[in-house]
C-alpha cells in the first residue's frame, strides 16, 4: 500500500527491494498520489496483480502492457484524467470490475466491452458520456453499468 504518499513516479528502489517477492504480490494501492503515468516496467514487474488501485492520480492513459496482466480482476482508475476509455483494459479477459468514476470520458467502446466475458461492473459515474453512449451501451452489455443520472436539459 503506497496510497497517499505524494508519489510522482513509482519508486525505482522498490523494484530492486521486492525483486524476489513480486510473484506473490496480488494487490497494489497507489491511490491519491500524483502519478501522471504508469510504466511498462511496473506492469511487467507486478505481473500477478489481481487488484490495482490507481484512484486519485493524474493518469490519462495506461501502457499497452496492461494486456499482459492475466490475473487482474479489479482496477480502480476513478478520479484521474482519462478522456477516453483505456482500451487495453478491454483485452484483459479476467477483469470483473472497472471503476472510471470522475474522469473526462465521453465515448465508450461498447462492442469491445460487450465481448468481455468476465466483466461484472463498469462504473462511469461523473463522466461526460453523451446520451448516444447511454442508448448504445445498455442493450449490448451483460454487466452492471453505473452512470450518473442524466441532467435535465435547461429550458431557454
From TrEMBL:
Query: Mind telling me which Gene3D superfamilies this protein's record contains?
Result: Ribonuclease Inhibitor (3.80.10.10)
The record ties this protein, via PROSITE patterns, to: LRR
Q: Report keywords, A-Z.
A: Leucine-rich repeat, Repeat
| Cellular component, GO, one term | cytoplasm
Please give the superkingdom of this protein's source.
Eukaryota
PANTHER family to which the protein is assigned, alphabetical: LEUCINE RICH REPEAT-CONTAINING DOMAIN PROTEIN (PTHR48051:SF46), PTHR48051
Q: What is this protein called?
A: Leucine-rich repeat-containing protein 20
Species this protein is from: Gavia stellata (Red-throated diver)
